[in-house]
## 1
Amino acid sequence: MQTMYKHILEAKKGNQKLLAVLIDPDKIDIDHIPEFFKKVHTSIITHVFVGGSTDAEKKMGIVVKTIKQNTHLPVLIFPGSHEQITEAADGILFLSLLSGRNPKYLIEQQVQSVEKLINTSLEIIPTGYILIDGGVETAVQRISETKPITQDSIETIMHTALAGQFSGKRLIYLEAGSGAKKAVNTNIIKEVSSKLKIPLIVGGGIRSKTQLNAAFNAGADLVVIGTAFEENEAFLLELKNLEC
Ligand code: 1GP
């Protein structure tokens, strides 16, 4: 049963905005997870994404397990590679890097995931992932050996998102990259969300409530924030509502 996806669709229909905290297993201290989630629970966060371009210390399984022990929020894997897949989560964003032309991230990683996913209870959500230039070279760019689409190529971004929808993706994720200097421009979000029928995720470089509101008002259905919470947990405490 597609429960998490159904909830995202219903939220979109009801214009209820969703916010995910992104946890990078390479960066979080496992002992700090309980305290971190106390703050998460005071905020408007609705989802937990876990993943990163690398999982150098192979901590994904234990990080997800510990998060699950400390929250009732839905936990989705946002994997940089098939090696990060763990049954401890509730679901997986099954990503294809549609902005790139590297077969490894369009289909090879996906094929390698099947052995783990064939008998899984994880909810699998096909997601078209579109990397957009965030003003710095990001880990996704380095690892995937693909170039992001420039922010002024709005038509290319919109066509890429719609090609994803036409191919059967259930979500489109516009990604400026973790720690981006420039978040995805609101003109891009407006253009893509006005044409797209499926829910739109936006992430990368969002560090303030003003930017968060701007992304939502432009048409993002779900926003992802990682770095801003890693660097300043007090930001979580500011997010008790969406008023600026
Ligand atoms: C990265 O979109 C996410 O994959 C979040 O980016 O870390 O810049 O918030 P930040």
## 2
Amino acid sequence: MSKTVLIATDKPFAKAAVDGIRNVLDAAGYRLALLEGYTNPQALRDAVADVDAMIVRSDLVSADVLAAAKNLKIVVRAGAGYDNVDCAAATATNVVVMNTPGQNANAVAELAFGLMLQLARKKYTGKAGTELRGKTIGIHAFGAVGRCVATIAKGFGMRIVAHDPFISPDAIARLGVEVVDSVEALYSQSDYLSLHIPANDKTKNSIGHALLSQMPKGAMLVNTARKEVIDEAGLVQVMKEREDFRYATDVMPACDAELKSFADERYFATAKKMGAQTAEANIQAGIAAANQIVAFFEKGDLTFKVN
Ligand code: 3PG
């Protein structure tokens, strides 16, 4: 029977990505429903009422949304982090949750360097900045984004160190990256620290004063992961104690106004999360999501299921 697939994106995909998704769904005989740029969560609850599948980005798929979606069988988060989906509630209502790992990794990694340059070059105000070449970059978590960051860092001539207890040291070392066996060792030698850990119960608020204050003089924390992993009180304390410390982030912290008030030159946050916001990443992640939905309904394929 024909299925209806809703694309629900508060931050819309590039048009080419929506067209690509439509092509995949048309070929399968499925119907596409589109809810873009909505501001009211009620709009999402209304839109899910009759759909069989959903493609979302960072959109909040709460227990309420799942309860309103009586026919829903699958939610695909077009992206890597699925902390925006209530996986326990999905499991309880027999809804499969998937992500599309790696599809937007390069886009996020490129933005990490954009953020580094933004502050290294003093926000392009005309003042002399510093170069990335010869500096040490620490990569905290060596998944798809971390690997792309390492590849780009080589081009900048940086020394690269990484820590990821879930990936074999050999696999990291094979890419020419030095492995460090503790987070403390990682932070204490990183001039630039690029964060790629997921947000979960173990990582939330885990990056705070104890780790950040160990970073070398002039260090920069670069966050293209999630704001929830930062202990903001600890971050503010380090930024106040150390006039050399810099923070660049793609996820605006709650303490944005406070940091701007005393550290505007060494703090930068994008107005809206932009890491995965490229045409290429939208097309790759969106089309992967559509293909995963069709494979799920037609063949029972559960690759990339996360709940
Ligand atoms: C991800 O987890 O893939 C990124 O954070 C992308 O998020 P976005 O789809 O909201 O841009």
